[in-house]
Amino acid sequence: MIDCFLKFASLAAALADAQALAHTQLDDQGVRQFMADHVVGQVQVWRASQDVAGTDADGNPTVTHTFLPGRFFTVSGENLPAALINHAAVQVCVNRDKASARTSGMVVKSNVSLALLQDLRFSPVWEGADYPFGAWVP
Length: 138
Known about the structure:
alpha+beta, single chain, two-stranded antiparallel ribbon, about 20% helix
């Protein structure tokens, strides 16, 4: 299974893009929605190095993330088209099975440096996805 994380300036920009639009459908109200069977339409991305540790009012530890700007979403599939994998909006495409097994080839395509990729975190991710945050192998 390949998971491609894409970034657009906004939802409107994503919906204006032909590759992103191919993974949407109209709901019963006529509103365009991402296809939930293979798209996570609202992914938050942050850099772990910018997390701020603290405590809540009861003294419990907390972590505050600073989310990166833009609209991130994930498209997943067994055989994603090359036009999607090579799209300019792709931040990274991950082979989920190789990532879970911690084997080489887990990073199918990346438009960010390996150093930056090691620092990125994503939420939510697909159930069962076991990404090696901080330990990616190209």
